[in-house]
Amino acid sequence: MSRTVDVALIGGGIMSATLGSLLQRLQPDWTIEIFERLGDLALESSNPWNNAGTGHSALCELNYTPQKADGSIDITSAVKVNEQFQVSRQFWAHLVDTGALPDPKAFIAATPHMSFVWGEDNVTYLRKRYEALKDHPLFAGLEFSTDARTIRTWAPLMIPGRLKSQPIAATHIASGTDVDFGALTHLLTKNLVDEGATLTTETLVTGIKKQRDGLWRLSLRKDIGGTPMEPVTARFVFVGGGGYALGLLQKSGIKEIRGYGGFPVSGEFLRTDNPEVVAKHAAKVYGKAAVGSPPMSVPHLDLRVVDGSQSLMFGPYAGFSPRFLKTGSLVDLFASIRWHNLIPMIAAGLSNLGLVRYLVSQLAASEKTKFAELKQFYPDADPKDWYRITAGQRVQVIKKDPKKLGVLQFGTEVVASADGSIAGLLGASPGASTAVPIMLTVLEKCFPDKLDAWRPAIAKMIPSYGSALSDDPKKASQTLQKTAKSLQINP
């Protein structure tokens, strides 16, 4: 006879850890079990070397502030993403204040965020972006300069070797962060287990089926390709298995997943651990994507703080693999095709030929060409200091569209059954940085009957819940100051 749990979380990454942490505080009498197919947590998308770890807050990511046809800058997406990240920060700060996360330095580090561009048109764009954001309460402290000497004080290795005649510009904001989502996942899950949740690793969920009694039956297998295990039934299931979420939701049979497909995107970064080089770059610097390239291709030179050690990472360089996870199967893409998502996938492919051309050009690029992109940020870069690392697999959402039949969506999307008994997360960036607001969306979609009872507890953990900090500059300033103090980062 199978055992029954109240909540089954599939996938041992930041999303499951976040949702479990919320539910454990809102409904402490519920039983929670986490199922992870690999031998440890956060080995896929949540791993610090498989994601940019910026703490996405749109402080430096230029793709969130597009220039409109009239030349003005649209800051809508930037404000939205920043608002979402502040929600995550509030929850983390609450956990630190209550002792659930004992040491914030174990997962978050103060790291200035910069945008850097070259060329007259891009300098003009960045100046307009600065003017549009500088007085916004969530972007307080943003600085702008076209002076090489000033920029050198912000990022010393980016100026030497650069032509003095080259027009350049940068913005700088000290309140940026670097987040190790792998460490955060481990800390959150440890607290979950300490408070009564169960973690089961090396366990593959091979099937999800709804029973007549309304419970979900999870078919399990020990290890990848191992022997079958006793099934588990659950009252609520969350599928946070990264790229494998699509396939598991398809197996569940819920009609809400119909029409959804996925396109896998892999990538590489250049990394250096040379302390002399790392010491000259204490920032995350994002540039502007080349004309015609997708948002995921925005180049950035990042300081990374992992396990207390500092490194620099530059990229991304796009690649392609049909796998939906780094440890996935070569047939993942083909196995995800269904009659109901075939047309959206074909339509999305035909309307994104620019992305196909970009991927082909990246795959064909020589090592010399790829290193030349780094030298645009760091002119004196020495190839001997850098080595390649493979980033995590991302599966971009493809879904039905009434006008185009199918669209490729950049972002994250919650898919839930009509009765709220199962939900899953599809998509990629900004992902981990906005895990808390995304999981609040899961709560709102799946537990509407409990939301009123939970609201006071949510507001205690996340004081801005239900409101926008942008609408209250005083509250925004107070919130940023309070969370910065708790997390021991720059306000």
UniProtKB/TrEMBL annotation:
Note the superkingdom of the native organism.
Bacteria
Which reaction does this chain catalyze?
A: (S)-malate + a quinone = a quinol + oxaloacetate
Q: Which UniProt keywords apply?
A: FAD, Flavoprotein, Oxidoreductase, Tricarboxylic acid cycle
The record's listing under Pfam families reads:
Mqo
One GO MF annotation is: L-malate dehydrogenase (quinone) activity
**Annotated coiled-coil segments of the chain:** none
Q: Which Enzyme Commission number(s) are listed?
A: 1.1.5.4
Q: What cofactor does this one take?
A: FAD
Region (Disordered) location: 467-491
Q: Where is the composition biased (Polar residues)?
A: 476-491
NCBIfam families in UniProt = mal_quin_oxido, PRK05257.1-1, PRK05257.1-4, PRK05257.2-1, PRK05257.2-5, PRK05257.3-1, PRK05257.3-2, PRK05257.3-3
Name by which UniProt lists this protein: Probable malate:quinone oxidoreductase
**Gene name on record?**
mqo
